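Can anyone check this?
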Amino acid sequence: MDRSTNLDIEELKMTREQYILATQQNNLPRAANAQLYPVGIYGWRKRCLYFFVLLLLVTMIVNLAMTIWILKVMNFTVDSPLVLQSDRNVTVNARNHMGQLTGQLTVGADAVEAQCKRFEVRANEDGRVLFSADEDEITIGAEKLKVTGTEGAVFGHSVETPHIRAEPFQDLKLESPTRSLIMEAPRGVQIFLNADTIRLGNLPTGSFSSSPSSSNGQQTVYELCVCPNGKLYLSPAGVGSTCQSSSNICLWS
């Protein structure tokens, strides 16, 4: 009983103190010039805020409509390729991390221009280089290079190839319409003609004057040689080709 009584007395004291504090705060005098300020945005500020929100919403709608229109005009879908169209030209630039131009591809109405250190065309299947070009050389890696023009291929300088052959069932023709045709090799030029008939029309011949030492012996085997101007001459046959040792005959004729 004593303990519960003490608790009740303490609760009454606490309640009394709270009541006294509450009555003291309510009885405090207020300032004479106290004003109440409303919290929020009112007046012209509120109208400006609504205007900017509306302007932002209109801009977003216009951007979305323009994006949809561009995708529709360019026929851009997940399955179709990307199409770039222009009335003048389409230019694609490549730059490094410093912003310097490293490559440029321009597709115009008259030409397609590419400016880069090296230009390559690769196969779709194995990725091998079909065509490459740089400042030093042009390499064609295709299995066959076919020129279908009526005038053929024109080379301003020499052409190096280990093998020249015609297509199947086609004739191979070497012709110089206005100048001479020259074939030179440091180890001689060998021509194998596997034909029943060989025609050499209007081919000039050269004369061979044997030395006294060689006239004493009986030379029965000779080698047929050709001068750069097309003249033929005979050279004493040996183990190898002797055309080079007797090539001074071409200077006499």
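Reply from J.R.: I decoded it. The chain has four helices and eight strands.
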